[in-house]
Design brief:
Layout lengths: L2 E2 L7 E5 L6 H8 L3 H7 L13 E5 L8 E3 L6 H8 L3 H7 L13 E3 L4
Antiparallel strand pairs: 1-2, 2-3, 4-5
């Protein structure tokens, strides 16, 4: 899975399409409908997803849980990759001044409501 990171992505994250991906498979992977992906990317007519294409995947309504309890050995990068949430979003919505200072047992938000 190739999650890309960028600035000001509170309501979506970027995903690079891989060989064999379809809009249906991508939607299923992240718990959103293909229609949500079409809408977020201003795709007017259904078409095939092209490998290498970068898509915006909406966070609202995804199957990404609302909260995460930090475990031993977790890093912000690891939590970001495992949950498909950009690091800058995690830092922003949790007001993390020291992103490297996660403590075991701390509860952090993975997304806004």
């Amino acid at each position: 899975m190739r999650i890309l990171y960028g600035d000001n992505m509170k309501d979506y994250f970027m995903y690079r399409v891989e060989k064999g991906d379809t809009f249906w498979k991508i939607g299923e992977k992240f718990g959103v409908s293909p229609l949500d992906i079409f809408t977020k990317n201003s795709i007017d007519k259904p078409r095939r997803a092209c490998p290498g294409e970068v898509l915006k995947i909406p966070l609202k309504g995804t199957k990404i849980p609302m909260f995460y309890r930090v475990k031993e050995g977790d890093t912000l990068w690891k939590i970001s990759r495992e949950n498909g949430v950009p690091i800058n979003v995690l830092i922003d919505i949790n007001n993390l001044e020291n992103p490297g200072g996660l403590r075991k047992g701390k509860i952090i938000k993975l997304r806004e409501k």
